[in-house]
DNA sequence: GTACAACTTCAAGTCAACTTGAGGTCAAGT
DNA sequence: ACTTGACCTCAAGTTGACTTGAAGTTGTAC
């Protein structure tokens, strides 16, 4: 049997749910590293699974691949605690926004006013949206 | 003075914070309508401001411009209550995910373990991320 | 009456994170 | 030996929501 500490790309793909193309892309970007080759086939160390989970975590937290890359510096997959903390704060912000948004939608869906434009609550929500829009552009980021 | 029920694109831009290019783009897509022209300059009805706020609301709730477009059907800016309700549910989901994520990040940032890979809590978080990754691809959507 | 800032159109460019396609290699099972 | 399917590379395409640029027009303040 082959080295148990070496996964081919198909295994990794099955294990993580990520398509092989994505894994190659991540390797290109330097987010993961293969261990060597069997012929021309990549061999990944076992811990690539964990690392990919970490990448997923970062993506879900709204980090770009580049930001995630900076977390993986020279001495291995060491994590920048400040970056993490900042991201947690940002998430808190976003959660608050989304909660307000959800409440607004919920209300709008239930509101008996014939047109939402006759409903003061809805108008107030729109007003809030308008204001936050004016504060800063919302550059869409992945979730 | 010109008709008080007619804003030129610059006014709308200033009022909403959206660049003129975006407003033209939205008109192209049929999300807003101009009232007519003054020469070749668009004139927008006053209520375009409200409509743009509504569009912003939709965007923030994660709707695509096309989805928002379907909310504005024939008889005016009438709102699809079911769509709204569904989106509210989706937001609830997302809020839960983000909360878990935030807690994870917060913990990771504070955790005294030398490497996060030695911290059981962190490993469990990664595991959760891995599982949710396996459930469904995360196609990034705007926020 | 003229300068010019603000508008116009339309096509093309941008961004991130991938995906797809063409054309090729190769290990393993039958 | 040979088929086959999983792998390879590299360039180009995709998506959505805009932005930018070039080239032209015009309302308005002076």
Structure description:
Two copies of one chain form a homodimer. The first copy, chain A, is mostly helical. Chain A folds into two domains: about 5-75, Multidrug-efflux Transporter Regulator, Chain: A, Domain 2 (Orthogonal Bundle); about 80-140. Chain A has six helices and three strands, in the order E-H-H-E-E-H-H-H-H. The structure holds a DNA duplex (30 and 30 nucleotides).
Shape of chain A: elongated
CATH topology descriptor of the largest domain in chain A: Multidrug-efflux Transporter Regulator, Chain: A, Domain 2
CATH class type of the largest domain in chain A:
Mainly Alpha
Q: Are there runs of chain A of 5+ residues with pLDDT below 50, and where?
A: 135-143
First-residue to last-residue Cα separation of chain A: 40 Å
Largest sheet of chain A: 3 strands, antiparallel
- Level of helix content of chain A? 55-70%
What is the averaged pLDDT score of chain A? 79
Helix and strand topology:
The structure is a homodimer of 143-residue chains.
Chain A: E1 7-8, H1 9-16, H2 20-29, E2 36-38, E3 41-44, H3 48-60, H4 65-71, H5 81-110, H6 120-135
Antiparallel strand pairs in A: 1-3, 2-3
The structure holds a DNA duplex (30 and 30 nucleotides).
Quick overview:
By secondary structure, the first copy, chain A, is mainly α. The first copy, chain A, is 59% helix and 6% strand. Chain A is built from six helices and three strands, in the order E-H-H-E-E-H-H-H-H.
